[in-house]
Amino acid sequence: MTDTVITAGVDGSTESMAAVDWAADEAVLHGTPLRLVHAWLWQPLNVPVEQERETEERAAHAILREARDRVARRHPDLPCTATILPDKAVPALLHETRQARSLVLGTRGHGRLLGFLLGSCGQQVVAAAECPVVSVRAVDPEARPADDAEVVVGQQGTPQESAGVLEFAFQAAAARNATLRAVRAWNLPPVQTYALTGLGAMEEADGPVPYEKKALSEALAPWRDRYPQVPVVEHVELAGGGPALLSASAGARLVVVGRRVRRSHFGTHVGSVAQAVLHHARCPVAVVPHA
């Protein structure tokens, strides 16, 4: 992850403009420039339909101009560039993730019960991005989180596996002077696991709850030392990862979740926990790739 620039993808929708606002605020918080991008590729059709390249190109530039003007009104002193990417949306945005601190995208609302629709483009980008991707949706100003709302992060696996996720979350909390709530969810292991391990790590820790609390504390320790100004709440819960994070994120300013970098014969995947949080959290969600 580099600290050079925060990038926002813009398509002219209300949701993408909300992403522009969030990305601009984030750039100010971290003292980095903002880069606005819009993917547009002229693709003539082999059908008798009138197409005007100049008209479409002007429309693409107008989308970026509106976004850049919006940033200038919000943060007049923020360094901001706006660029047309001559490619299809997914490959263009994935290329941007190679050089950005984070990529910010808009999420379309899809009803309180059904959650929020990230869209096929957004899902493909989140699943294969090389930097954290933040999903932002347009919200009612009256529903914005309180100034003292927490940043929530999901921690799982070993300290090494969750290092990138925790680094992003601690940086976000420090920039906002916010409390960080670190959530580690666990489930009872199957009977055969106990049979295979015998008196293993869980037994040595006097049961699964102390074991999980110890694992969370060990993962957080180096980051608490690096960011001593960040208040941390350690939250261990018997639940699935998605439900635990969604419950903890009520009223939060940001949720940070990891995505394991791996490929299968069916392509890249976001992961069930990240997918659940992306679709149902009511605040911005950052998905951070990790080994």
UniProtKB/TrEMBL annotation:
Pfam families registered for this protein in UniProt: Usp
Database matches in InterPro entries: Rossmann-like_a/b/a_fold, Universal_stress_UspA, UspA
Residue ranges crossing the lipid bilayer per the database entry: none
Sequence ranges assigned to domain UspA in this UniProt record: 6-137, 160-289
Family of this protein: Belongs to the universal stress protein A family.
Protein name stated in the entry: Nucleotide-binding universal stress protein, UspA family
Organism ancestry: Bacteria, Bacillati, Actinomycetota, Actinomycetes, Kitasatosporales
